[in-house]
Design brief:
Chain lengths: 304, 304
């Protein structure tokens, strides 16, 4: 009885990684391209695939066909991966390890990493426009109008009004005292905007109403904050072996985090409060929203 | 009598810069954003605006309404500017001067320059999707289907199948002996792909036929190569004061160029041959194609 999240996540993860694999050229054979190899290296390096799973699960929650949400979720994952590649660069966070393997600029070089990030971002829009599809795409693509709306949602969330402004604020705030309010504003932009876009695209492609969109965006905003708070907690308390990256780095870089501002215990309480707020937003929906409910819970209890 | 290119270029430049100005937030006032300031700094730093002019002139040449081509041309200019910002980075070409002023990472810092480039690329797709418009857009936007086709053209030209692969090849070839064939292949990708996309989008939005598209793409490929050859010649012989950037840098970086492979005189002959080939492609068209003809000529005689 009940919903088995672990099985669901694993099934979706395999499905998403197969689709990602088909949406990129192999980068091997006669047309070996260093930049395609670097794109593949970072995109196929694992990860939770949280954003595409949210896109798919949101589409399913309102009774939509998740096959239509799959390429959009993959495009969002490409944008997420590009943002990690660029954030890891020496001029930004200067991280050498990500998901248990060397970051892109360490495995290749800085120039290749910059270009691989640029290429993933550009390719994501080709996928959103429907001009790149997987061999097994047997479903009719969404209407041009829906594709354009998805591009509008994603470009706003990923651009200077969203994720990029969040990263800029993160860079500017580093090592400086700040407030809980400023920290939340930064996270709403840096990670929240793309999490919200994942959910919004799922609702869009599933044919949701304006009211659905409002409720699901509300859900997404709160799991986004819960996710970030848990990320900060894991950076203090997590096991580097499980996380695939170093712990304690926030403190080392004198980053302002939820634990540094309010302590680990209060941060944990806050994460749970955001999860509860997210669950309340989903109360009008039936069992088809169970994956989203389970995801909200998983986000505050995950160990990586 | 005859077509006055200087007046035409100046009128279009003003029109394009007004549109670019309206397509970006001011970056001032209460919502001052460092990343928006950096986007503006590089986007509004002048330049020939060759790509949007080609987009507009191609649309007009087949009798289309150039108001429809204007935002697409502006989006392409944003992508061109992002590529310059990233190419100038220390990890890439490490240039300190561009268009007579400090490059973005010198005027701001590396992290901001990376983010400003990312943001311009992302914003270009928002503009192409029609989700960002200028206040004075009084014309109906192109159909969703045409918008998606433009996004497909631009994302392919700007991504790993085009411009990015060209920059990667440029980085890998630097300081190494190469052939005229390899040099041309690199330039076809690095600068040619986006010049061709500018023209193709103009034809698309102007309602051109398949035959129009083939002829105009042929024109674009040859002016693209002529443009690059002239760029190489100017790097040897140009006046830094007029160009707004240093001369002789290719030789300093031991870059393979047309002059280094075949000498300046033969390079000049080759540029003119490409111009002639471009003009031949336009022979079926009437006086409305005169701006494109004049541009082909300008490209091989410009001094900056």
């Amino acid at each position: 009885m009940g919903f088995d999240l672990k099985t669901y996540l694993e099934r979706q993860r395999v499905r998403i990684e197969e689709a990602l694999d088909r949406l990129l050229p192999t980068g091997e054979g006669e047309n070996t391209s260093r930049v395609v190899q670097a794109m593949r290296y970072s995109l196929m390096a694992g990860g939770k695939r949280l954003r595409p799973i949210l896109c798919i699960a949101s589409c399913e929650a309102i009774g939509g066909d998740s096959e239509l949400a799959l390429p959009i979720g993959c495009a969002i994952e490409m944008i997420h991966t590009y943002s990690l590649i660029h954030d890891d660069l020496p001029a930004m966070d200067n991280d050498a390890l990500r998901r248990g393997i060397p970051t892109c600029h360490v495995a290749f070089d800085e120039a290749t990493a910059i270009l691989a990030g640029d290429a993933l971002l550009t390719h994501a829009f080709a996928v959103l426009a429907g001009s790149v599809t997987t061999d097994v795409d047997v479903f009719p693509p969404p209407s041009p109008s829906l594709c354009l709306q998805a591009i509008a949602i994603v470009s706003e969330a990923a651009g200077f009004p969203g994720m990029i402004e969040g990263q800029m604020q993160d860079m500017l705030q580093e090592g400086q005292p700040t407030t809980l309010e400023a920290l939340e504003r930064m996270h709403r932009l840096k990670t929240g905007a793309m999490i919200e876009a994942s959910v919004a695209c799922g609702v869009l492609i599933g044919g949701g109403s304006r009211a659905d969109m409002d409720r699901f965006r509300h859900y997404a905003r709160h799991i986004g904050l819960a996710f970030q708070i848990q990320d900060d907690i894991l950076n203090v308390e997590g096991d580097p072996k499980i996380m695939g990256k170093a712990a304690g780095t926030d403190r080392l870089h004198r980053k302002t985090t939820y634990p540094s501002l309010i302590g680990v215990d209060a941060a944990r309480v806050l994460a749970v409060a955001h999860r509860d707020e997210a669950l309340t937003a989903l109360s009008p929906y039936d069992v088809k929203a169970d994956p989203l409910r389970a995801l909200a819970d998983y986000i505050v209890h995950r160990n990586r």
